[in-house]
């Protein structure tokens, strides 16, 4: 669960809004990223981003999680983030077919930045509610709860 003030584990500057879980050796590790770093690391639009990350030929098997190209083609799912590196040449044609491009771009970076700004505001309102409640400032808490409802409605379509 992302705490209200957790920073991106990659840039350590912006609030983390995306969780990325990876299973290795039966253990789940969760890392938290801001939208900008998550997009850059996992949804890179430019294939040249991956050029410096190429790994040795793996004969169609991810060296980190063991996923084979055949498993990917059967399920359409990768086992870990490094599958994109190790199996790049084999899986990109399928990604192009599924998404129409190398990366899922959503509605554009402006919307991502706006959403990130709203999430940061929501996290701050949530933090202030906790502070005001601890201080027994119920008027301040009520005001921040109203702001929290408004931001949740904008972000998630929840009723105001």
Descriptive tags:
two-stranded antiparallel ribbon, elongated, 6 helices, 9% strand, mainly alpha
Indicate the topology.
Elements: E1 18-24, E2 27-33, H1 35-42, H2 69-75, H3 83-86, H4 88-99, H5 109-134, H6 138-156
Antiparallel strand pairs: 1-2
Helix pairs in contact: 5-6
Task: Walk me through what this model shows.
Helices cover about 50% and strands about 10% of the residues. The chain is built from six helices and two strands, in the order ββαααααα. The protein has a two-stranded antiparallel sheet. Helix 5 (about 110-135) packs antiparallel against helix 6. The longest helix has 26 residues, at about 110-135.
């Amino acid at each position: 669960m992302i705490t209200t003030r957790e920073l991106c584990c990659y840039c350590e500057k912006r609030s983390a809004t995306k969780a990325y879980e990876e299973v290795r050796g039966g253990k789940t590790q969760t890392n938290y990223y801001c939208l900008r770093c998550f997009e850059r690391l996992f949804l890179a639009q430019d294939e040249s981003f991956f050029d410096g990350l190429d790994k040795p030929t793996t004969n169609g098997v991810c060296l980190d999680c063991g996923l084979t190209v055949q498993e990917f083609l059967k399920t359409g799912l990768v086992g870990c983030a490094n599958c994109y590196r190790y199996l790049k040449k084999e899986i990109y044609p399928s990604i192009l077919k599924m998404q129409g491009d190398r990366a899922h771009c959503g509605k554009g970076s402006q919307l991502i930045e706006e959403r990130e700004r709203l999430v940061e505001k929501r996290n701050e309102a949530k933090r202030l509610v906790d502070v005001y409640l601890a201080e027994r400032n119920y008027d301040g808490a009520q005001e921040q709860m109203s702001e929290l409802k408004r931001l949740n409605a904008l972000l998630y379509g929840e009723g105001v």
